[in-house]
Specification:
single chain; 389 residues; D-amino Acid Aminotransferase, Chain A, domain 1; Dna Ligase, domain 1; Rossmann fold; 18 strands; 36% helix
Length: 389
């Protein structure tokens, strides 16, 4: 789960991390009043959306007067911000008006899970203010990493070691940096975060570190322990199809292709998408109905695929282990009663109650294209999406 920058900074404040003074506003007049209240020669107006690369997309702008802050806010609020991460754009419902900071140097600081070694990793770079993905591609040596033992958390010597490597040697600044790094580690574990990022962490000309930006993503599987954090979710920032999937506890991610996939099990879902690409097609989604899918849940998943206008064909690939094939068949039939089946449907069933499932589909009267195995189903789906089946 993602939250907005202003929400992340509220959490930062609770952990006593240094952040600029800022006020969240919802219209131009509030922005103008906020700029007056902050009282700095320059304020920064920041669009609050769940996407990186806001600066390049025009979502972060400087204002040298309250009137200018109001004008910028009026141009942002109510519109959509299109970034390299979200070409379709996300709605800007509010902006953060923040006091200007006298910047001397910028650093990138991030904490996430390194899946290659199954440990959290603290990443710091002196190339702050840039997208970390771009740094990783062009100058990976600029990213200094320190892995963290989850049993004990980040240790002070590790924070000092990484600080020295990025050129933080001043005693006062070093002390501040170590405190910030240790606090981020504490937050990461206490809040069940999947990512904490400060880009940039700025060193001011007055000799202080300030978290100029703040980003926190949370592990969805641990949100039951954090009801207060759950309440921070802004559903306007979530793709409508993904939001609908969330209601039914479906693992769904929208992609750019035109073949809708419904599969049980994440591994089989990945293999299905790989097979579709192998035969020249493009999957329109990742959709795992899970091992305990009910007829109603399968029906909801099927309707989800049909509601995507980009989907030209649907490939249902089920290996019935925990979830029975007859249950999947029942879900497909139920969904077809509620939503018109207007696209080719390729179904491959294997496993528990497979004969019963196949019989149910055959007797349903639905126009279903059977597949004998995954490769056969993927090839038929690719042909169907191209209008050649």
């Amino acid at each position: 789960m993602k939250i907005h920058e202003y929400q992340a900074k509220e959490i930062f404040k609770k952990y006593k991390l240094p952040v600029p003074n800022g006020i969240v506003v919802y219209n131009a007049q509030e922005a103008e009043e906020a700029a007056k209240e902050l009282g700095t020669p320059v304020v920064v107006v920041k669009a609050q959306v769940h996407a990186g690369g806001r600066g390049k997309a025009g979502g972060v702008k400087l204002a040298k007067s309250p009137e200018e802050a109001g004008k910028i806010a009026s141009e942002m609020i109510g519109n959509r911000l299109r970034t390299y991460q979200n070409p379709e754009g996300l709605p800007i419902n509010c902006v953060l008006v923040e006091a200007g900071v006298n910047i001397d140097k910028e650093f990138y600081v991030g904490l996430t899970l390194d899946r290659e070694v199954s440990r959290p990793v603290l990443m710091v770079s002196a190339a702050g203010g840039m997208e970390i993905e771009e740094i990783a591609k062009t100058n990976p040596e600029l990213i200094i990493k320190e892995h963290i033992d989850p049993a004990i958390g980040l240790l002070p010597y590790q924070a000092r070691k990484i600080a020295y490597k990025v050129g933080i040697t001043d005693k006062n600044l070093l002390s501040q940096f170590v405190k910030i790094a240790m606090t981020l580690s504490k937050m990461y574990f206490e809040l069940d975060a999947s990512l904490i990022e400060i880009n940039p962490l700025v060193q001011t000309k007055e000799g202080e570190f300030i978290c100029l930006d703040a980003k926190i993503d949370f592990d969805d599987n641990a949100l039951f322990r954090h009801k207060d954090i759950q309440e921070l979710e802004d559903t306007t920032q979530i793709d409508p199809l993904e939001l609908e999937a969330k209601k039914w506890d479906l693992n769904y991610v929208k992609l750019d292709g035109n073949i809708g996939c419904m599969v049980n099990g994440a591994g089989l879902a990945m293999a299905t998408m790989d097979t579709i690409k192998y035969y020249g097609g493009e999957p329109a989604n990742f959709l795992d109905v899970g091992g305990t899918a009910t007829v109603e849940r399968v029906a909801a998943a099927f309707k989800l695929l049909l509601s995507d206008p980009n989907v030209k064909a649907i490939f249902v690939n089920i290996f019935g282990g925990i979830v029975r094939c007859d249950r999947i068949a029942g879900g497909i039939i139920e969904a077809a009663k509620q939503v018109e089946l207007d696209r080719p449907l390729i179904v491959r069933l294997e496993g528990t109650n497979v004969e019963l499932g196949r019989k149910m589909l055959e007797e349903s009267g639905l126009n279903i294209i059977p597949a004998k195995d995954m490769a056969d189903g993927a090839q038929k789906a690719v042909k169907a999406a191209k209008g050649k089946l």
